[in-house]
Amino acid sequence: MEKIHILHADMDAFFSAVEQRENPELKGKAVIVGGVNLSNRGVVSTASYEARKFGVHSAMPVAQAKKLCPDGIYLPARHKLYKNASREIFSILKKYTPLVEKLSIDEAFLDVKGCDRLYGSAVEIAKKIKNEVKKETELTISVGVSVNKFLAKLASDYDKPDGLTVIKKNDIKNFMRKLDIDQIWGVGDVFSSKLAEENIYKASDIWPYSLEELKKRYGKAGVKLFFLSRGIDKREVKSQSQIKSISHEETFADNIEDRDRLFAYLFKMSEKVSFRLHSNSLKGSTVFIKVRYSDFSTYSRQNSLKVAVNSSEEIYQRAKELLIQNDLLNKPLRLLGLGVSNLCQEGQEQLNLFAEGEDQLDKTIDQLKRKYGFNKISRARKLYLNNDD
Ligand SMILES: [Mg+2]
What is the pTM of this model? Predict the structure, then answer.
């Protein structure tokens, strides 16, 4: 039997919980943490479980939250405080295995394969982590344990707050049978309404379809659906030091020559790369691009920067310069890609004070994306693209 060795650890209502810890009078109350200024135009970063009962959730406009929960306590975000708590939590996680993949300030995957002789089984490690986090930080963390990342993440979400859910190999089929289709990683509103047209509402509704059929209908997304609907996920847990570069590329259905469209694609890809850099607290000092023409000839170019970057705007600008300066846009493109390498941990790079504002904007967008899926939120430039792009 396949041993369960993947953990997903996720703090419960993190920012609100930290605020409640700092000020015990807030305990048991509806606490809503928003942007720095907490203007009505801002969005909710975290709502305490008490506030969630009123329907308030993260990424909701503050103005709307105030209508739903007028007596709530609205606090501006204090990121330094949350970062310090996060550092403590990650140092606990890293005690059990070097394979910790940070997803955000309060969430990580762990691979504890081979750690059992030292610390016990994966479930025992999960219990130890929960106890230690509570003891050291007075905060609660939910942990999911299973055979892969996808199932571990579903498990950690299953019994929040302060949950510990284990999905064993033998439980997978039953667990997946009941799962709503939009709970599957990568299935957003657009895709799930497309699937609803075929009467597909549950993960198990996918099971009768063959891999070939799903691939023909939905392309790559269909292949993913085939495997994930059965709880199969081959992605490995990667610690930050194992990541050498982060990139994204797209092959177009028809070759594209129109520069505005290509730049729109470039921006969409730089947002994806930026999102992943931020998620891993990484910055990179080399930006590279790749193009392929209709005759399959392929070129890549790179540029080393004095200051490491991770904002989508900077990555986009550098990539665009590479394309223009090297005169790579004079023929229709079949493929376009960009990426960032020479990575370093955020905070260890040379500081670029001018980039701060842009960073903050990216972080807000990242947060919304994590909540609502990728295609919902983006900046104006992507309007050049159709929904299907
Ligand atoms: Mg969380």
Answer: 0.72
